[in-house]
Amino acid sequence: MKRRPSASPKGAGTRRALGPSQAILLVVLVIGLVAAACSSDEPDQTTTQIIEPGDVATLDDGTEVLTQGILVISGDTRLCGAIADSPPPRCEGPSAILGDLSPDDIVALNSASDPEVGELSWTSYELAVSGTVDNGILVNVEIANRVYPAVGDGLRMRLVWSQSPFFPRQLRSGEEIRWAVDITNILDEPIELTFTSGQVAEVTLSDGDTEVYRWADGKVFTQEINEVEFEAGRTSGATLADLFVLDPGTYTLRAWVVATGAENAVIEAPVEVIEN
To answer: Where do the DSSP E strands lie in 59-173?
Structure first.
């Protein structure tokens, strides 16, 4: 049976996006993927440069790029090559300014008000985006992470995964992964949700009828009942970190919110796992 061993997420600290050697690996992997695919909704990597966020400002106008980093919105919208874990979330070192990216398109976008910087939004995972360089900023921005949606019980659920370096369609075994999920109340009235523990979401992979990966395995959650009145139009998200280890193959991914009242908002899709 294909089963991952128990593992804990990698340690905290300054988190970084693509390094030079990773970018070279990524070019080889992604170009191979594009050549093999019958159809694709990812950018054409045969003409797209894969770069660090901080390199955007150094490129000529009209250059098409793919880049990855932590998104921070505070006045302007930036993709950070590295970000400090100490609050408030902020870029450390060079970053890319994104000219036209709607916050509504970002899965699991955190928001807060900080006394130093005011209103602030950020991702807890590395977002991959494509776009065109124009006067030192990135425009015509599109999210490159594949978004998996589902609707049920008056809720819209979305999931993306993030690994570094970015790989558009396949999960890599032996690497840290971040599953980012959010739900939105699409009704005109509140929805009552009841959580029975500190766990808010779950992700599993199955090989046929056999479950071979469960994000919550080996993790401990607070045991308390939390009843939430989820208001109309409200969005709430979470990012689930793990060390992802699984035999190569094709699996069925499922993801859902672990709450009474959201039983039918379940994402289900085939995914492919490859060796790192």
So the answer is: 64-74, 76-80, 82-83, 95-97, 110-114, 118-134, 137-143, 148-152, 155-162, 170-173
* 43 token code pair: 């950018």
Q: What is the pLDDT of residues 19-70, one digit of tens each?
A: 443 443 333 333 333 333 333 455 455 578 899 999 999 999 999 999 999 9
The pLDDT tens digits of the residues spanning 31-41 come to 333 333 333 45
Q: What is d(CA 200, CA 197) in angstroms, rounded to the nearest whole number?
A: 8
Distance CA 47, CA 60 (A): 14
Query: What's the pLDDT tens digit per position in 5-20?
Result: 333 333 333 444 444 4
CA 51 to mean position of chain CA atoms: 18
Q: CA 140, CA 133: separation in Å to the nearest integer?
A: 9
Top-tier CATH class for 15-143? mainly beta
Sheet with 155-162, edge to edge strand ranges: 148-152, 155-162, 175-185, 235-244
In this structure, which CATH number among 2.60.40.2360, 3.40.190.10, 3.55.10.10, 3.40.50.620 belongs to the domain 148-275?
2.60.40.2360
Q: Residue 223 pLDDT more than 50?
A: yes
Longest dimension (CA), the chain: 55
DSSP letter, residue 260: B
Q: Is the pLDDT at 2 greater than 60, yes or no? A: no
Domain boundaries, the chain: 15-143, 148-275
